[in-house]
């Protein structure tokens, strides 16, 4: 009978360890290991770039939210503490609409303000003709930017003058001057 080279459990363990060590050495020295590492590093770098881009975007969002908050506080600070109801509009539809919208004036009667911009103004706390009349000059540009209007629209369209006429109930004069039928 021939002698087998591996007969004891210790010899089999040694053989298994030698095979595993050889396999690991071969894997480490092959090109496949390098390609894996290169792909890993490329993915890691792309992930880091994305995290930096996200951090920049989050910073920009925080800055815009802070600016929005400042604008809302400025507008709220300039509003009278206890709002006084403006005179009722003379047109039936305006009166009905005013009733359903909680006593706010129908700002869309002002040339240059459509219903979409009226909703935006209402969300900013500008709900009465008086609010437009008393809008500080320094708040015009931030408000125009917020509404997506070109710079100078509030002055060019004479929103304050229109608001004063409508608040006073002078709808015929408003229509004559601004060509808008209130």
Automatic annotation (TrEMBL):
<keyword id="KW-1133">Transmembrane helix</keyword>
<feature type="transmembrane region" description="Helical">
    <location>
        <begin position="12"/>
        <end position="29"/>
    </location>
</feature>
<keyword id="KW-0812">Transmembrane</keyword>
<keyword id="KW-0472">Membrane</keyword>
<feature type="coiled-coil region">
    <location>
        <begin position="37"/>
        <end position="74"/>
    </location>
</feature>
<protein>
    <submittedName>
        <fullName>Putative flap endonuclease-1-like 5' DNA nuclease</fullName>
    </submittedName>
</protein>
<keyword id="KW-0255">Endonuclease</keyword>
<keyword id="KW-0540">Nuclease</keyword>
<keyword id="KW-0378">Hydrolase</keyword>
<dbReference type="GO" id="GO:0004519">
    <property type="term" value="F:endonuclease activity"/>
</dbReference>
<keyword id="KW-0175">Coiled coil</keyword>
């Amino acid at each position: 009978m021939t002698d087998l080279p591996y007969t004891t459990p210790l010899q089999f363990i040694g053989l298994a360890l030698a095979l595993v060590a050889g396999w690991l050495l071969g894997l480490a020295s092959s090109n496949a290991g390098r390609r894996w590492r290169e792909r890993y590093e490329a993915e890691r770098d792309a992930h880091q770039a994305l995290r930096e881009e996200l951090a920049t975007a989050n910073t920009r969002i925080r800055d815009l939210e802070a600016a929005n908050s400042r604008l809302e506080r400025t507008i709220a600070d300039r509003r009278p503490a206890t709002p006084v109801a403006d005179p009722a509009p003379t047109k039936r539809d305006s009166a009905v609409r005013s009733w359903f919208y909680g006593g706010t004036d129908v700002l869309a009667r002002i040339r240059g303000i459509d219903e979409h911009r009226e909703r935006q103004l209402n969300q900013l706390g500008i709900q009465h003709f008086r609010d437009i009349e008393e809008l500080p000059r320094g708040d015009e540009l931030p408000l125009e930017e917020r509404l997506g209007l070109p710079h100078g629209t509030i002055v060019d369209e004479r929103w304050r003058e229109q608001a004063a006429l409508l608040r006073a109930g002078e709808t015929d004069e408003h229509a004559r001057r601004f060509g808008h039928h209130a």
